[in-house]
Amino acid sequence: MPELVTPTPDVRASFLLAMAEFRAEGRGGGTDTSMIGREHREYAATWDTPDGFAAYVADLRAAAREETPRPEGFVPSTTLWYVENAEYLGRLAIRHRLTRFLLDIGGHIGYDVRPSVRRRGYATAMLRAALPVVRDLGIDRALVTCDTDNVGSRKVIEANGGIFEDERNGKLRYWVAT
Q1: Is 59 exposed, middle or buried (0-12, 13-18, 19+ CB in 10 A)?
Q2: Rounded to an integer, what is the distance from CA 169 to the centroid of its chain?
Q3: Least enclosed by CB within 10 Å: which of 10, 103, 104, 164?
Q4: Whole-angstrom distance, CA of residue 128 vs CA of residue 115
């Protein structure tokens, strides 16, 4: 049964295959502003070694702590990976508070499902499993956004009780009770 877990070196081989899948669909380039895009640019050169991957995992874990230095405009963020045994299926990031940008565009929660396992209900299950974690961070209503043309993501948000608020800058904005 798949579950959300704290990032772990235990799924490195599967994670690397998943990142290759994302790269094959065009993710990770210079214009990709997503979590996966940024991490490709910052870490992909070191993912191949066990030590490099362990450092990446440590950085993801540290990002959840308030005292961790981060780029301007970034907030503490808890990353969780959706895994089954040693297979990496996807990821979810919970931003602990909203900046102006996150209020308009990014929201509290972002998620990605590995291309080869999409359309199996994993995104819906990931978001559902993350809501208690979000609540434990003191967030009663989580903002979740998606591109206006991303029907699958819209359905994921709505299946988790998302209440549509509005559209801003090409993003649909939903509030989800935690």
Answers
A1: middle
A2: 20
A3: 164
A4: 20
Residues 27, 32, 36, 41, Cα dihedral to 10°: 100
Whole-number Å distance between alpha carbons of 129 and 125: 6
> What region does 88 belong to: left with phi over 0, alpha with psi -120 to 50, or beta?
beta
101-120 per-position pLDDT tens digit? 999 999 999 999 999 999 99
Residues 6+ apart with CB under 8 A from 8: 57, 81, 83
Provide the pLDDT confidence category of residue 39 given band limits of 50, 70 and 90.
very high
Residue 85 DSSP SS3: coil
The two structure tokens encoding residue 96: 């602990």
Neighbouring residues of 10: CB distance < 8 A, sequence distance ≥ 6: 86
Reported pTM: 0.94
- CA dihedral 149→105→154→113, nearest 10 degrees, is 90
DSSP state of 68: S
